[in-house]
């Protein structure tokens, strides 16, 4: 299992569009993915689960990935967070 703490840095946080990008990205991997924020742990492949986190800008989020392609999945998630979900110019 891989675990990494990231910070939501895009201006709008994990709103519907950003959440959809994250879930769509993770759906291409076999590994299971979990997000932990504000004392809640959710399935990162579930739009409703991620939306329930209500993670705004600046929220620390722990990403946990476990499975056969976990390294690739984690690298993709880290890249998406670092690109601020392709929203901020």
From TrEMBL:
Domain HPr, first and last residues per copy: 1-88
Protein's name according to its UniProt entry: HPr family phosphocarrier protein
* Compartments (UniProt record): Cytoplasm
Q: Which organism is it from?
A: Stenotrophomonas nitritireducens
Q: Name one GO biological process term.
A: phosphoenolpyruvate-dependent sugar phosphotransferase system
Identify the taxonomic lineage of the organism of origin. Bacteria, Pseudomonadati, Pseudomonadota, Gammaproteobacteria, Lysobacterales
Chief place of localization:
cytoplasm
Q: Name one Pfam family in it.
A: PTS-HPr
Can you tell me which family this protein belongs to?
Belongs to the HPr family.
Keyword vocabulary terms for this entry: Cytoplasm, Phosphotransferase system
GO cellular component assignments: cytoplasm
- Gene3D superfamilies assigned to the protein according to its UniProt record, in alphabetical order: HPr-like (3.30.1340.10)
For this protein, the record's CDD domains field holds: PTS-HPr_like
């Amino acid at each position: 299992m891989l675990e990494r703490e990231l910070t939501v840095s895009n201006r709008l946080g994990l709103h519907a569009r950003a959440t959809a990008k994250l879930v769509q990205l993770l759906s291409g991997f076999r590994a299971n993915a979990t997000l932990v924020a504000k004392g809640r742990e959710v399935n990162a492949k579930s739009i409703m689960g991620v939306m329930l986190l209500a993670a705004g800008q600046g929220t620390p989020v722990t990403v946990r990935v476990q499975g056969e392609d976990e390294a690739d999945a984690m690298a993709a998630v880290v890249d998406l967070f670092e690109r601020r979900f392709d929203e901020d110019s």
